[in-house]
Amino acid sequence: MGGTYEPIDSVRGITNKSSGKMGLALAREAYIRGADLTLVVANVNVEIPSVFNVIHVETGKEMNDVILNLIPSFDIFISAAAVSDFEFSEKYDKKIDSSSSLFLNLRPTTKIIRKIKKINPDIFLVGFKAEFNISTDDIIKCAKKQILDAGTDLVIANDISKKDCNFGSDNNEVLIIDDEVLSVPLASKREIAKIIFDVISKKV
Asked: Residue 1 and which of 38, 54, 156, 184 are 20 to 30 A apart at CA?
């Protein structure tokens, strides 16, 4: 859960605005329902209760390594983290001088979610797909593509350009997608977490 951070040099890097609120809402709902869970946590703006087993990571690679080690031992994996799509080809171990222009090369990061089913084919895999200012039909197409590419059993998709649905908000409006599409209107992330687990419980 949360957003990963990719370093440029010893003091600078790129990240995203993911707050970890949806991930925490899901964790709380799983805990209430009696699940034995582990949270893999990157950069978040929420306080995580001490009752949870937490593994802290920073970069996408660190998250990848931790998750791939955990996957064989779990029945359900919910990929709610906002993992960076890019990392820097060259990382500097000192602070880069800011007195001149700088060009940085980015390369795609490993798509963690595409590895999950290869390691544990029986796991129930829930993916998240955040898009920006696209049509509902296109969001569904993106979700269906993730299902094909990663073998996800369920995708939670949303448009973060919508009012009250952006990163860091307390509410969201989502589509829950597998063979069918369930539209969930604007609601608190806590309520959405309940709906997501209601759907999961009918499928596992």
From this structure: 184
Q: What residue spans define the domains of the chain?
A: 6-203
Cα(93)–Cα(24) distance, rounded to whole angstroms? 33
Fold (CATH) for 6-203? Rossmann fold (3.40.50)
Taking the C-alpha atoms of residue 57 and residue 25, their distance in angstroms, rounded to an integer, is: 19
Beta bridge partners of 6: 14
Q: What is the pTM of this model?
A: 0.93
pLDDT tens digits, one per residue of 126-185: 999 999 999 999 999 999 999 999 999 999 999 999 888 888 899 999 999 999 999 999
Separation between Cα atoms, residue 40 and residue 94, nearest integer Å: 28
- Residues near 164 by beta carbon (within 8 Å), at least 6 away in sequence: 171, 173, 186
